């Protein structure tokens, strides 16, 4: 009698554990799309992609924004990277293009990905990038040099207390990530 109760109890525990395992497997499988949706909604860890720009944005000729363009390379890449214009002044709403230059100093093919950062942090929501080398990985043959454009505009809705902003791009070796 006691063995039957123990056996029944063990079977119930086994059933519960199997159901729990199936639920946890399904949860783990669904976690990636849930996380992607969460990131999309909150705006964190958003992959870089071109912004859509309304055709009726007007240039604010009454304001000038000082833009500093910073360029960095992390260890692992034998690249030189620089902005051809480290400082510019522009009107919010005006479509602007700046050029960067990257050079592979090594004799080997290297693959890099540029990651942007912004200062002040809230500036990111007012920057509308149409074309940027940061949207895709860059491949450079040994001793190759490329000039890469960034086309963007600063939303005229940028707060009046923001006068100077910085866009910093850092290239990382893709093989290290």
TrEMBL record:
The keyword Hydrolase does not apply. Keywords: Copper, Membrane, Signal-anchor, Transmembrane, Transmembrane helix. Pfam families: CtaG_Cox11. Its main location: membrane. It is found in: Cell inner membrane. The keyword Transmembrane applies. It is a single-pass type II membrane protein. InterPro entries: CtaG/Cox11_dom_sf, Cyt_c_oxidase_assmbl_CtaG. Gene3D superfamilies: Ctag/Cox11. It comes from the Bacteria. The chain crosses the membrane at residues 17-35. GO terms for molecular function: copper ion binding. One of its GO terms (cellular component) is plasma membrane. Exerts its effect at some terminal stage of cytochrome c oxidase synthesis, probably by being involved in the insertion of the copper B into subunit I. PANTHER family: CYTOCHROME C OXIDASE ASSEMBLY PROTEIN COX11, MITOCHONDRIAL-RELATED, CYTOCHROME C OXIDASE ASSEMBLY PROTEIN COX11-RELATED. Belongs to the COX11/CtaG family. This is Cytochrome c oxidase assembly protein CtaG. It comes from Nitrosomonas stercoris.
């Amino acid at each position: 009698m006691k063995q039957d109760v123990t056996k029944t109890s063990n079977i119930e525990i086994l059933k519960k554990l199997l159901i729990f395992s199936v639920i946890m497997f399904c949860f783990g499988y669904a976690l990636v799309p849930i996380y992607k949706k969460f990131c999309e909604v909150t705006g964190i860890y958003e992959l870089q992609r071109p912004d859509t720009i309304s055709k009726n944005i007007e240039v604010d000729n009454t304001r000038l924004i000082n833009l500093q363009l910073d360029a960095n390379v992390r260890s692992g890449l034998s690249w030189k990277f620089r902005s051809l214009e480290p400082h510019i002044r522009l009107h919010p709403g005006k479509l602007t293009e700046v050029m960067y230059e990257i050079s592979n100093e090594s004799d080997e093919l290297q693959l890099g990905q540029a990651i942007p950062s912004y200062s002040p942090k809230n500036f990111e929501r007012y920057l509308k990038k149409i074309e940027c080398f940061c949207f895709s990985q860059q491949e450079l043959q040994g001793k190759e040099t490329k000039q890469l454009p960034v086309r963007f505009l600063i939303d005229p809705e940028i707060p009046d207390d923001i006068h100077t902003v910085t866009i910093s791009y850092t290239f990382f070796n893709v093989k290290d990530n």
